[in-house]
Amino acid sequence: MAELAACKAEYFPQLLTFGAEGLQQGCRLVEDREFGKSSLLRAAGTLVDFLVEYRRHTNIGTAVAANQIGIEQSLVAIAPPGDSFEAEAVLVACNLRLADTRGSHISAESCMSSKTEMVAVVRAHEIIAPYQTLDGQPAAFEEIGRAADRIQHEFAHTLGITCLQEAIPGSLRLLALDGDPLTQMTQVAEEYDRLYTPQLITPS
Ligand SMILES: [Zn+2]
To answer: Per-residue pLDDT tens for 52-94?
Structure first.
């Protein structure tokens, strides 16, 4: 963790952390006239490059929202599943929103913008989340479980909301600076599993 904190400070000074004003400002919607234009593509490229580099340096991080690194438009970069990825494989979603949800469950979450914080959040179990591609075409994520959590976490960022603000009261845990972050995160997630009964509510 100490290494992670030092790594963030050295390589990613543009990354805003919890409490920063910019994180609490929602992203502005991409306007019709911006789609396909070089300024939007440049912003998207900056976000993708950030995610690729962050993953390369830290071995964690699968998605990032634009306002986490000071980009104003509503953009979210999502990496494919797996250990490593190239910039070409990262999807950028514009104007992401939640259209439909089913059920709910407890999600154990941390954030690139956290320092050592980890929290439990109630998330929808299944989601449909429409977005627009960089050239303005309509598209949508249809996700379930962890994959749905990730989309909801990033969507909240675009509204200026962090998982810390969405946390179940009393669920905040601080990871130790001298431990391996992934091991600790797994342990905290197991603790949440014992503490909170997942409520999977599927409407008939
Ligand atoms: Zn986050």
So the answer is: 999 988 888 899 999 999 999 999 999 987 767 788 999 999 9
Pair type for strands 138-144 and 117-132: antiparallel
Q: What's the 126 CA to ligand 1 centre distance in angstroms?
A: 19
Q: Separation of 154 CA from ligand 1 center, angstroms? A: 6
What CA–CA distance (Å, rounded) separates 109 from 204? 29
Retrieve residue 151's tokens. 């989309």
Structural domains present in the chain = 2-195 (3.90.45.10)
pLDDT digits (tens, 9 = 90+) for 13-37: 999 999 999 999 999 999 999 999 9
Strand partners, 75: 94
Ligand 1 centroid to residue 61 C-alpha, Å = 9
Q: Dihedral of CA 30/16/91/148: which sign?
A: negative
Centroid of ligand 1 to alpha carbon of 113 (angstroms): 6
